[in-house]
Every structure is written in C-alpha cells, then in structure tokens.
C-alpha cells in the first residue's frame, strides 16, 4: 500500500512540477540522469535505467533543486548554506543509489567508477 501511495504521489508531483519547470533546470537534471545511466551501461548495458526509475530520479532531483533554492534564500551565509546543501544532496543521493537503483545497477555503476579511477591513476 505504501508503494502505491508513494508512486501516486510521485506521479502527481511529476505532472505538477513538469508544468512549472524551466528548460534549463530540466536540461541539467536530464544531464545528471544520463550521466548515471552511462555509468551503469558502461559495465552492463542490460542494466540501463527504466523510464520509471528515470522519472523517480527526475522528481527527486527537481525537489532537491527547489530545496537548494529555498535554502539559499533562507541562509545567505555561504558557510551555512554549503553545509545544508551538502546534507540535502547526500540525502537525495542515498535515496537514488540505495532505494531506486537495483543491485545489478549499483554493481555496474561501482565497477565503472572503479575502472575510471584506476585509469585516472595510471596516467
């Protein structure tokens, strides 16, 4: 029951928020989603993100953008804002990488990141 309510909530949020978004924000979020998808498909092409996963990630990242904008208005002090922004981003990333992605996708992404890190150190 929780999953159904959560899915409906996300769907309604997606529909409402898609009308109020600027093209620049959409582009930034889609770019981040594609980056995650590339990291996954580089190691395991069959583990690509589904459209449902993409829409959930889009909603989360859009809500993060809104939250960061609010935090910036509430906390003009750059040190405090940076800490709050970092905490919010960390929360969203945990949700994305621990709840939305499957085990296969997490493993593929981890493998790709490991290869890139290894190649970077060899240069």
Structural summary, described in words:
With 123 residues, this protein is mostly helical. The protein has one domain. 86% of the residues lie in helices and 0% in strands. The protein has five helices and no strands. Helix 1 (2-19) crosses helix 3 (51-74), helix 2 crosses helix 3 (51-74) and helix 3 runs antiparallel to helix 4. The model has no long low-confidence stretch (mean pLDDT 86).
Keywords:
globular, 5 helices, mainly alpha, single chain, 123 residues
- Name the poorly predicted regions: none
In DSSP terms (H or I, runs of 4 or more residues), the helix count works out at 5
Total of domains:
1
- Determine the structural class based on helices, strands and strand pairing: mainly alpha
